[in-house]
Design brief:
Among the domains are: 182 residues, Tetratricopeptide repeat domain (Serine Threonine Protein Phosphatase 5, Tetratricopeptide repeat, Alpha Horseshoe), CATH 1.25.40.10; 143 residues, 2-Layer Sandwich (Heat Shock Protein 90). Helix content is 71%, strand content 9%. It contains 16 helices and 7 strands. It has a 5-stranded mixed beta sheet with strand order 2-4-5-7-6, covered by helices on one side. Strands 1-3 form a two-stranded antiparallel sheet. Helix 8 runs antiparallel to helix 9, helix 10 runs antiparallel to helix 11 and helix 13 packs parallel to helix 14.
């Protein structure tokens, strides 16, 4: 019996040690990921957060696992890899839902950071409808969790949503509701945090008017809270004074005691006067600093506007000089093309919130016409295949034709003799479909993929291309309420995926 008891105790200790080791593994990975993120090693941080998510999920640490999953999504989102970000968030939600079904319990607090990250991405994509749907779900999760901190965070998120889309009245309503809650609870530090957070939201959205208006409100609040604090201090001082008078009355015969009390009150009054003077000096310095910051913000906005205006006009500034040079020279032709691409890129950036007009098109006929236009450009014995059903779909024909022709032209250029090129159409849901362009060419190296859709990421010989074709196509995809990405799992050449939401 003693031997059996010893074995049971040993087994229990080994189980506890293994459990602690698993927990320490997930927490250590999360700590390493946070350190990498602080050092701005974003790829390493994303990998470590993904590993931490897997470890914490195995440990059933739902809240911590969901937080790591949201971090992975945010790091993908930071690099405009929206497809990967949405996939990570969807997998994390599915994992939590499965745990809820198997454990017969709800995990709203774990779902919360995943839903909040989706809202951030939809706001960046200017998808108002999807952002609003996720915001409603965020409020439901906060109510289910019955957490005051999450309910307050919902108000912050709602304010950010409204201000981003220019709905200042609704944004003020959300932030004022939170501020009034803190005022009622006399949580003055929390009120200060609200104003500072709102100023940060306004700065990130580039809303100089909102920054200035919030600074004015913050200054008024600072003055009022100082008045409230001074009133409380005066009430305390009055209470001390009344207590002192009572003591004096009780000891009318003790003149020396009265004198000491009067001296003490004078000293206290002097200290209060010094404090008020110092407070006035601090307030004056704050006002001067605020004015300086306002001026700096105005100058920064002016410079940014001038830079945008210069980029918009750069092609027209180059045109007179280019027209004096022989148009047959490759360099001159390349500069003409470069100037046109710059103008096109600038116009797309300025009109991202203006969607294209949509038309019903037979997708098979449309794709076949794209393939027909590129067949004359391919090398000998290269086959161009179209896989698309005879289905009517709403599309922006001109923009979609521009993107597909650019991808097909690139495929024709880099696919050797005897190779293959495919244009596929895939329906991924009721409102989601994909156009996939694949080839058996030389492919694109991993080090070049990160900057593939970023303009001006490298200095190039313009006669060999200016590298703006794919960034322009990516912006067009965004205007079509979609994304353009490269498939990293395809290794036989290059595969681009254009995913559209209608």
């Amino acid at each position: 019996m003693r031997l059996l008891g010893t074995l049971l105790i040993t087994a229990a200790l080994l189980f506890n040690i293994s459990t602690l080791h698993a927990k320490s593994k997930g927490e250590e990975l999360q700590r390493q990921a946070a350190t990498a993120l602080e050092k701005k090693e974003y790829t390493q941080a994303r990998y470590l957060y993904l590993q931490a998510y897997s470890a914490l999920a195995e440990e059933k640490a739902y809240d911590a696992a969901a937080a790591c999953g949201a971090k992975v999504g945010a790091l993908y989102h930071r690099e405009n890899m929206f497809k990967e970000a949405f996939e990570v968030l969807r997998n994390a939600d599915q994992y939590l839902s499965q745990e809820e079904r198997e454990g017969s319990k709800q995990l709203p607090a774990a779902h919360y950071p995943l839903t909040k990250e989706r809202i951030r991405m939809y706001i960046k994509l200017k998808n108002v409808q999807r952002a609003d749907e996720q915001l409603i779900r965020l409020e439901e999760l906060a109510k289910q969790a019955n957490s005051d901190s999450l309910k307050n965070d919902v108000l912050y998120t709602r304010a950010n949503y409204y201000y981003t889309f220019g709905q200042h009245t609704q944004g003020d309503e959300a932030i004022n509701q939170l501020i009034n809650q803190y005022k009622s609870a006399q949580a003055y530090d929390k009120v200060n945090e609200c104003y500072k957070t709102l100023i940060d939201i306004a700065r990130k959205s580039g809303n100089a008017a909102l920054v200035a208006r919030t600074y004015e409100k913050f200054i008024l609040w600072t003055d009022s809270v100082k008045a409230l604090t001074a009133r409380d201090e005066m009430a305390q001082l009055k209470q001390k004074y009344d207590d002192s008078l009572l003591t004096i009355k009780q000891r009318e015969g003790a003149l020396s005691t009265k004198q000491y009390i009067i001296i003490g009150l004078c000293i206290l009054a002097a200290i209060l006067a010094v404090v008020l003077v110092l407070g006035g000096v601090v307030l004056l310095r704050f006002i001067l600093l605020t004015r300086k910051q306002k001026k700096a913000i105005a100058v920064a906005n002016e410079h940014n506007e001038l830079k945008t205006r210069f980029i918009q006009n750069i092609s027209s500034q180059m045109e007179p000089t280019l027209n004096t040079l022989p148009a047959t020279l490759p360099g001159v032709q390349a500069l003409h093309t470069f100037a046109g691409h710059i103008q096109e890129l600038s116009e797309l950036e300025q009109s991202l919130t203006q969607p294209y007009e949509m038309e019903e098109k037979n997708i098979n006929t449309f794709c076949e016409s794209m393939a027909e236009k590129v067949r004359a450009e391919v090398k000998a014995d290269v086959t161009v295949t179209v896989n698309a059903p005879k289905l009517s779909v709403k599309i922006a024909p001109e923009a979609l034709e521009h993107v597909l022709l650019h991808l097909l032209d690139n495929a024709a250029r880099y696919t050797p003799e005897g190779g293959k090129i495919w244009l596929d159409f895939k329906k991924r849901g009721a409102h989601t479909h994909q156009f996939v362009v694949s080839d058996t060419g030389c492919g694109i190296s991993e080090e070049k993929r990160d900057n593939l859709f970023k303009p001006f990421s490298e200095v190039k010989d313009l006669t060999e291309g200016d590298g703006l074709g794919l960034p322009i196509c990516s912006l067009m995809a965004t205007k079509m309420n979609g994304t353009l990405s490269i498939d990293p799992t395809y290794t036989k050449g290059t595969r681009f995926v254009l995913e559209l939401h209608v």
